Amino acid sequence: MLNVNTRNAFAESRPAVAESQLEVAVRAGVAAVDSLAALEQTLVQNNNFLQRGTPASNHVHQSRIRQSARDMDKRAWTIVMASSNVMQSEGLTRSQGGLGLRNVRVSETSLRDQCPPKVTCGDPSRRYRTADGSCNNLQNPEFGKSNTPVQRILPPIYNDGLAAFRINGVDGSPLPNVRKISSSIMVDINEPDPTFTLSVMQWAQFMDHDFAHIPFPSLENGQGIDCCPKDPNAQLHPRCQPIDISGDPFFSKFQTKCMNFVRSMLAVGPGEACTFGFAEQLNQLTHWIDGSNVYGSDDEEQRAVRSFQGGLLKTSRGNLLPFNPNQGGECEAELRGAECFLAGESRR
């Protein structure tokens, strides 16, 4: 067990913010989201997005973002932008803004409709899981529900207290380049394991795809956000955090100096956890080990994979996964003219 009092780690008194100032911040948050939507439209119109067939684009199309996740991310971004406005107008410290504003409920403002609706569990003796993972814990029905925040052990250390990427260490010096760290730790050598086969990795990946998918946003046309545009003066999407790989031993062979990196999508906490303050990352799947990668993480996905005949799932020829009727270019096979499979989880 961690030798830390996590309750105290999140403790910070509520800053004195007038109700009128909160409403000003709410309007600023809504305006910021509207501006982001306008920017994204401009990026699409100018063809400033990841082009199909590139490695970065293929990475984006390995997984699908549900519309419910997009809606949740928009709500969360509105609240984070409103929190930022409060911090600036009131001169709050990072701790006061990130942690202190967690004591201010969104339901106390005109943004109350952005909070997720209360979960109703119904019959507690029913036999099967809910599609979205809710009501697995009857005392806390929202625990483990899809499209809810990832649970934290300790509070985050954002650069601005709310959402900005951390760039400095505890001594104030710049953090090292993440690509250099990963290249140093994950050495590219062929060293067969004498004990474990590839099946161990595949099972671990299957389990991971059962309880965790923290997606990164894409544009409304489904294409990926380009954080490494050819035009150095091009406006970047605010979710961009490109990685400098100048002089990288591998990528320098291809004259590549920038690695595309987009910040992950956000979520709003349920009930009393629907507050202002620091950003929370969204888990698109149920948080339980419940077979959601087979059966889906919401009612729509569950209906799509069921045959409704004898309790069986849909299949294609040879009892393989069914084909996706809404192709949409969501898998690499589509680029080769083949059909994409459909499963409870999109990272097939």
TrEMBL record:
Protein name per the record: Peroxidase
Annotated keywords: Oxidoreductase, Peroxidase
GO molecular function annotation: heme binding; peroxidase activity
One Pfam family this sequence matches: An_peroxidase
The species this protein was found in: Scylla olivacea (Orange mud crab)
PANTHER family xrefs: OXIDASE/PEROXIDASE, PEROXIDASE-LIKE PROTEIN
GO biological process: response to oxidative stress
